[in-house]
Amino acid sequence: xxLSEMERExxxxxxxxxxxxxxxxxxxxxxxxxxxxxxxxxxIAIVELLGGYAVIRIPQYLIGKLSEYPQIDYIExxxxxxxQQMVGITASCINPVRREPYNLRGRNVLVACLDSGADMFHPxxxxxxxxxxxxxxxxxxxSGNPPVGFEVGSVYGREDINRILExxxxxxxxxVPIPGDDVTGHGTAxxxxxxxxxxxxxxxxxxxxxxxxIVVVKMAVADSRGxxxxxxxxxxxxxxxxxxxxxxxxxxxxxxxxxxxxxHNGDSILERYMDTISNLxxxxxxxxxxxxxxxxxxxxxxxxxxxxxxxEIYVGDYLTAFNLQIWKHYMDDIxxxxxxxxxxxxxxxxxxxxxxxxxxxxxxxxxYYSEPTPYNPEQEIYLSFIARGNYLTAGIWKLHLRARxxxxxxxxxxxxxxxxxxxxxxxxxxxxFNTLVVPSTARYAISVSxxxxxxxxxxxFSGRGPSVEQGLPQRIAKPDLAAPGVNINTCAVGGGYGxxxxxxxxxxxxxxxxxxxxxxxxxxxxDPYLYGEKVRASLIKGARPLPFQEKRPSPxxxxxxxxxxxxxPEN
Length: 571
What we know:
- 18% of the residues lie in helices and 27% in strands.
- It has helices at residues 5-11, 36-42, 63-67, 87-91, 95-98, 158-167, 186-195, 230-247, 269-278, 507-523, 533-542; strands at residues 18-19, 24-31, 45-48, 53-59, 72-76, 82-83, 110-115, 134-139, 154-157, 213-218, 251-255, 257-258, 283-288, 298-302, 308-315, 321-329, 333-339, 345-346, 355-359, 363-369, 378-387, 395-405, 410-414, 425-427, 446-452, 457-458, 481-484, 488-491, 497-500.
- Strands 7, 8, 9, 10, 11, 13, 25, 26 and 27 form a nine-stranded mixed β-sheet that branches. It has a six-stranded antiparallel β-sheet with strand order 14-23-16-21-20-19, covered by helices on one side. Strands 1, 2, 3, 4 and 5 form a five-stranded antiparallel β-sheet that branches.
- The termini are far apart.
C-alpha cells in the first residue's frame, strides 16, 4: 500500500482488493469477540464469516485505525484466483456402487460448485419434469437481492429458478443478466462431472452424483484479468456451509480455482479458514492441485553458510508486470541481489526496510520484506516488477543469493500461475515438485491431481507435491489421490457436451465420490461420521495404485487413483 496506485495497478497483483471508484480496500480479517463496535465507529461494511473470520471494505486511511482494535487478530489483503483447467466414471469404480446393494447416486446430499457459474438451462441440471435440480444459486455479479448477512449479488431459490425456466428460455434472456450465467463454461463443465444426470445424452454421459442437490455460487469477476479474489471464495464457502446447515444436509464442496501466492504450507489465511470450516459441520472440501507441474513457475534450493547461488528467470517479450515470492526461514540470514538482463545490479536488499523501490530504464522494482505472522512462521521476500513504459526488459534476470548465516537453509520461490501474466515468465532451472496451487495445500482439503484414465498415465501438467528424494523438508504431504483429468466429456454451456482437461476436472470426480460416501454413511445411517477426514481416509483406503507409481504415497498422485467401490467402509 506504500506504493502509488499506478504502480499497484500495473503489478497485476498488488492492487487486488482495491476499488479505485470508492478508494477503499477489501480485506480479510481474523477477529475475536464482537466487531459490531468497529462497524459502527468506522462506518464500514463488514461481512462476518463462520469461524471468527470476516471480509471488510474500508477506506485506506482507516486501515491503521482498524488494526488498533483489540478484537482484530490479523489483517490480510486478498489474492487473485485462476481457473485450473465418461471413461473416468468406469476408471473411478463408480458404476458398481450405483447398483444393488448400494444404489448410491448422491440422494439428499448437497454438492457445491463455487466457480464461474453454471448453465441453469442445461438438461443435466434439471429433473425429468423440467424443474431445476439447483437448490440455491448465489450470483455475486447480479446486484439486488444478496443473501442474508452478505452485501453483494442476488440469491435465487429453487422456486425462483423454476419460475425462470418455466416462463423464459435462454435466448429470450440474452438482453438481461442471467442468474449464474457461465461465460467461460468452466463451472458448467465442473458441475457436469460432479452431478450431471445425463438428460441431454439419453443417460450416456452421467456425472458421479446425478441425484445430488446442487448449490451454485457464481463468484464475481473482480480482477481485471477475469479472476475472482480469495475473499469471494471465502464468502462462497461460507454461504454454502450456512445453507447446508439450514437444510441439515451433508455437503461436498468443489474448488477448481487456485493461485501461487503463499508459502504453500497450509498456513495462509485462506487455507486456515478452510480448515476451520472443515471442522464446523458435515462438510468435505475438495480442491484440484492446479496445472503448473511443467510451467516452470517454481524453484527450490538449499544454501549453506558462506555459499552463493544464482537463480535465473526468463522474461519473454511483451511482459508488462509480474511478481516473485521468495519464502525462507526467518532465522536464516540470506542476502539477495537482483541483476537485470543488461547487467545492472540492484541491492543487496535490506532486510530492515519493509518496502524498497528501485528504478531501471524500463521498469520499477519494489521489494518487500515481511515478518512471520501469527499463522505462518516463514519469511517472505516479495519482488514486484512493473514496466515503466509498455514492457519489461526481456531476457534472463538473475537473483544472487548469499548465505551469510543459515540454520535451515532451504528456500522456495514462486512466480504467478501460468495464464495469469501477459507473456511468458519462468525459472530457467525450475523445480517440478511442490507445485501444488493454493488452496489445495490446505490441511483438511482433499487435494486431487490428474491422470489420463484411457491409458493410466500421469497428466504431466498436474501440480505435484514435495519429493523426499530432493533432500529438502516435506512441508505438506499432498496430493491425496488422483482422478481422471484428461479429455473428459462433460456438460457444456448451451445444453450439449464438450471435452475438457485439467485438474479442475479431476477434482469434481472426487467431490461427487464424497457425496456418494456421505449418502451411504450419513443419509442412509450406515456411518453418521462419514464426512471430512473420514471421507479422505476412505478414499485413500480405496485408491488404486497406478502403473507408474513407484511408491505410495507419491508426489504425483498421492495414494493412487480414485476407486469408489473400494472406498466404502463395508465393501
